[in-house]
Every structure is written in C-alpha cells, then in structure tokens.
Amino acid sequence: MIKKVIPVMDTVFALDGGAMFGVVPKTLWNKTNPADDKNRIDLAMRTIYIETENRKILIDTGIGHKSNEKFDNIFKVSRNQNLSLNLKRISVKFDEITDIIITHLHFDHAGGNTLLNEDGKLIPAFKNATYHIQKDNFNHAINPPARERASYLKENFIPIQEANQLNLIDGNHTLFNEIELIPQYGHTIGQQLVKFNYNNTTYLYTADTIPTSSHISIPFVMGYDIQPLITMEEKEFLLKQAVENNWTLLYEHDPKITGSKVVFNGRKYKKGEIFNNSNSL
User: Fold this and answer.
1) Domain spanning 2-275 has what CATH number?
2) Is 52 in a helix, a strand, or coil?
3) Global confidence as pTM
C-alpha cells in the first residue's frame, strides 16, 4: 500500500520554445510559456517520491551533477537546488532508495542516475536501488539515431548495467502490485508513463508525452518527438481515460503547475482543477 507521495524538484532549466511546441506558432505558446532573449522557456525537472510499507521509490532522477559549465549555460541549468538537497528536506537519503523508475533515458530524466566518486569513476548514484527501465528504451539508448544521440548519454546508464542494478521491463507492467508502467513510442522508443492510486485518486505521471500543462491540447506536440503522429494518438487515448476516470495528471516539466485534472468541452481537452502542492499529494 502506498503511504506517501511527494513531488521532489531536481532543478529548473530551459529549452528552446520552438522545439518544445513543434509546429505550434510562437504567438500561441509564448502567451503561457514566455521565451527569453534566446528563445528558451523555463522548465521544471520534477521527480516523484513514493513510499510504501517496505519500499522507497523515485520516478526519474533529473539532470544530475556531472555537467560542465558550457552545458549548464546552454540549458540554463539552475544549481540553486538539486535532488539530493530536496530529498534531504523530506528526510530521505540516496542510500535509502530501493527503486528508481526511469521514464526514459534522455539526459534531463536520467542524468541523476549516476555520479562521479572520489576517484573520478562513474557509479550508480543510488547504490541500493534497482533501476526499472523499458527494454525497448534501453536498447534504443545504446544505439540511438543521430537525431537523439545528444540526448542519450551512456554515462547515465552503462554504469547501472555494469553494477547489475538494471531491471529491463517488456511492455505494460505492474510493479509491486500497485504501480502501473505504460510504454509509449511517440516521444521516443520505449518511454514509460507511471500510473498509481493514492488516497482514492488515480495519478498519471505524464513524462514527455504531456511534459507541461500547456501540452494538453492534442496538436501541441514537441519538435523533439521522433514520431509526433503517434504522440498525438497516445495523448488522445490517455486524455480520454483521464476525463472518464477522473485521473490527475502530474507534469514533470511544468515550471508552475504540479498537476491538474483534465476536462473535455466537446471540441478539445483542457486543464481542469490544478494544484501546486510541492509537499505531498
């Protein structure tokens, strides 16, 4: 039984607004996600901590701390907060984490998987955890197409494989009888969303299928998506279920909104009731 669910920020960073909204004109997305002088929009890196009777689980690990100054400047990475600091604030240590669910291995979701030890060697950041990743995504990350090569950094996942801490999942799967993993193929091959029930509410952690609340509209698809038409199909399927079953969506990248309900007005899907509680759900 799930006893506790807490959104935990890793950092805030920025990506090109045009890339985040694909073919949607800037005049539309700039109203809700204003761009800076380099056309970047602010994004959160929001992980989710789940505690059961005998497990301490983290969904995604953020950007991590291995990047250099050039990287941080390009992506406007803030180092004022980080996953380690924010886990400490809720009295959770890295070594207490038993399970890491990785939605996909892009650098902003999996950069915190590993760290450099005192000898400069890459090791798993969570030494006592099993990392749960879709097999399709891991295989795709090993040999990514040129378009995604800069997003899949082997330093973020090969050390986990070498340490035998990797659990490869094949398709839809339920972890610990209560956390459902839902594979997706629009954004990248083998991304997985995470669905769970807590306090009589069903939550769906939408990862990069719906990265922010501004992406609920079906045509609002990222330029990063390798199969955008499939993303649109996946979104519509999920949003229909969210409305019919009163799910709450949790947004990994929304800089202001932690989560929301979804409504359908007969023509399009929109945000319903929103919440921004960063302490617990």
Assistant:
1) 3.60.15.10
2) strand
3) 0.96
